[in-house]
Amino acid sequence: MILVTGGKGQLGSALGALLEKQGKLFRAPDRERLDVTDLAVVCEALNGLKPSLVVNCAAYNHVDRAEREPHEAIAVNALGVRNLALVCEDLGIPLMHISTDYVFDGGSKVPYTIAHQPRPLNAYGRSKLLGEHFLTSMCRRYYLVRVSWVFGEGERNFLFKVFRWAKDRGTLRIVDDQVSAPSYAPHIAQVLLQLCETGAYGLYHLHNSGECSRYQWASYALGRAGWQGRIEPVSSDHFPTPAERPAYSVLDLYPLDEMIDYCLPTWQEATDQWLKEAGYL
User: Fold this and answer.
1) For position 269, what pLDDT does the model report?
2) Would you say residue 193 has pLDDT above 90?
3) How does strand 171-175 pair with strand 179-180?
4) Which candidate, 253, 205, 213, places its Cα nearest to that of 234?
5) DSSP 3-state helix, strand, coil percentages of the chain (rounded to 5)?
6) Per-residue DSSP letters for 150-180?
7) Confidence of residue 281 (pLDDT cuts 50, 70, 90)
8) Residue 11 near residue 156 (C-beta atoms within 8 A)
9) Which has the closest alpha carbon to 96: 125, 60, 54?
10) Which residue in 44, 158, 191, 242 is deepest, having the highest Cβ count within 10 Å?
């Protein structure tokens, strides 16, 4: 049995849907049923369920809010990972944890490999990096997978916000100096489950193939949906935010891309699939 924490989030939901489709036994509780920040709750849940694998999708993803709520971000993104690592190690359960491209500072001109040293720019990134440290120091059998710009079901993703803005405006201004690679949750879920079957524990990077700016991504999606408005590229300076974002956070997928029997679709193909699921195509 596989336990997926954060089961109501974009990636947790996609994993649950895929596991159900594959006929595998799993549990995917939300925070109300399994709060990873509570060690006693984690201990009781894992001792009761005795899963063969835990996939931690629970996360505090409010990047700007984390600047004024650093303790809340640390509680989920770091201490929650510590709790899972402690109990999984004690019970001999492999732990897969999902991290982020925001552990990097964006100063690179080439995709970040698993050998690059993290240097987060904001409180959210620092909390995620601390979670990585807890995982790698407390758990021997772990998969640490960094993803970027996750999108899937629900309202907490960039594309949903773009279409919400486009509904009421004839002109959109989107930043063109933040470059990364979108990660479509259903595609990512397929790779994660394949990785779990390899037994090759360690650090990995994962996203859909290719790279784009926020502006390029929004332009492609709105164009495919037939939006008749105007979209303009602007610098991040036009939209000051509490948290600084990395300018370039594309991840190098080696060696994961050579280990799995799955050809990762491009970010354009992933966007098309999201548009179909959302009813725009």
Assistant:
1) 97
2) yes
3) unpaired
4) 213
5) 45, 15, 40
6) EE-SSS-SHHHHHHHHHHH-SEEEEESS-EE
7) confident
8) no
9) 54
10) 191
Q: What are phi and psi of 42, to 5 degrees?
A: -60, -45
- Other residues' Cβ atoms within 10 Å of the Cβ of residue 129: 20
Nearest partner of 122 among 56, 178, 184, judged by Cα: 178
Q: How confident is the model at residue 35 (pLDDT cuts 50, 70, 90)?
A: very high
Convert the pLDDT of each residue in 44-101 to its tens digit: 999 999 999 999 999 999 999 999 999 999 999 999 999 999 999 999 999 999 999 9
230, part of any domain: no
Residue 98 falls within a domain, yes or no? Answer: yes
User: Three-state DSSP class for 213?
Assistant: strand
For the chain, how many structural domains are there in total? 1
What residue numbers bound the domain in which 7 lies?
Answer: 2-215+238-278
User: Six-digit token pair at 209?
Assistant: 């193939």
Q: Quick one: residue 41, left, alpha or beta (phi over 0 = left, psi -120 to 50 = alpha)?
A: alpha
Q: Does residue 229 lie within any of the structural domains?
A: no
Residue 41 has which token pair? Answer: 């709750």
DSSP, res 237: G
Q: Measuring CA to CA, how many Å separate 99 from each of 42, 77, 219?
A: 19, 9, 27
**Per-residue confidence (pLDDT) for residue 178, from 0 to 100:** 96
CA nearest neighbour of 11 among 141, 100, 92: 100
Evaluate if residue 155 carries a pLDDT over 90: no
CATH number for the domain that contains residue 84: 3.40.50.720
Residue 263, pLDDT > 90, answer: no
Q: Is residue 207 part of a domain?
A: yes
- Note the pTM of the prediction, 2 decimals: 0.95
232 forms bridges with which residues in the sheet? 173
Catalytic residue among 112, 124, 184, 248: 124
